[in-house]
């Protein structure tokens, strides 16, 4: 069993597909992960299940790996031994979670934006340009900028979970680029396709951050690191050169327009 703890999860799932279902039962969804080289032990650690739940999960996995055999169930070593106590973010993590709320409000509007696409009118084109400006300036530069340039630097950037986060950000940028290219060609179908894909990608991405990554980072940062992180976030916000308020107003206006 110990040997499997140091194996990549995708490799284990390829060999024992039922492991994926077992992980899903514990809300550990590895299928959407674009990297998939995370080790079994890291996945268990990062999700911070209670000791009982972790033993239950490991026992089920052991049964899948060694059917009918009695296997000693290992306990995954944690860097910090905190029992999960619900989601309680530190101040800087709460800043990111709050920004996610505004990004999720844009995502909720995407189906309406797509249903009302009109590349032939000035207003219709402006709506796409404004949505892209929100994504590029607020979601990417303002929000992902703090994650990539500050927060992720506190950790080993070779960690699979961080590679996944970077890959998601990159993929988001390529959807936005494709939207603008399609706008030039007045190709509504492609605009709709990439906006919808962006919404699905970011929904999954934000869930991973809110529920897994940020709580795990909070558990692994010292009080003084959290204080430093907070002041670095504040400084980044002050030097961004535009007020995020205008993006809140944009979402308010769009929600009114589409009567959300
Ligand atoms: Fe992110
Ligand atoms: Fe984020």
UniProtKB/TrEMBL annotation:
It comes from the Bacteria. Residues 94-216 form the Hemerythrin-like domain. InterPro entries: Hemerythrin-like, ScdA-like_N_sf. GO terms for cellular component: plasma membrane. This is Hemerythrin domain-containing protein. It comes from Candidatus Desulfatibia vada.
């Amino acid at each position: 069993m110990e040997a499997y703890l140091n194996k990549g999860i995708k490799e284990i799932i390829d060999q024992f597909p039922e492991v994926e279902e077992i992980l899903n039962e514990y809300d550990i969804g590895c299928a959407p992960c674009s990297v998939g080289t995370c080790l079994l032990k890291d996945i268990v650690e990062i999700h911070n299940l209670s000791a009982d739940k972790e033993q239950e999960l490991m026992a089920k996995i052991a049964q899948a790996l060694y059917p009918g055999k009695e296997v000693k169930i290992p306990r995954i070593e944690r860097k910090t031994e905190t029992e999960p106590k619900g989601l309680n973010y530190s101040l800087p993590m709460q800043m990111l979670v709050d920004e996610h709320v505004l990004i999720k409000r844009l995502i909720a509007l995407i189906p309406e934006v797509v249903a009302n696409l009109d590349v032939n009118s000035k207003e219709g084109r402006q709506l796409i340009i404004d949505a892209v400006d929100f994504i590029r300036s607020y979601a990417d530069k303002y929000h992902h900028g703090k994650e990539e340039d500050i927060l992720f630097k506190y950790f080993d950037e070779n960690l699979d979970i961080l590679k996944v986060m970077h890959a998601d950000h990159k993929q988001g940028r390529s959807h936005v680029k494709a939207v603008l290219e399609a706008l030039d060609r007045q190709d509504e179908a492609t605009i709709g396709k990439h906006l919808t894909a962006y919404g699905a990608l970011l929904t999954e991405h934000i869930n991973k951050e809110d529920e897994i990554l940020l709580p795990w980072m909070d558990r692994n940062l010292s009080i003084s690191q959290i204080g430093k992180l907070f002041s670095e976030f504040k400084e980044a916000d002050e030097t961004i050169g535009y007020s995020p308020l205008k993006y809140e107003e944009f979402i308010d206006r769009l929600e009114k327009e589409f009567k959300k």
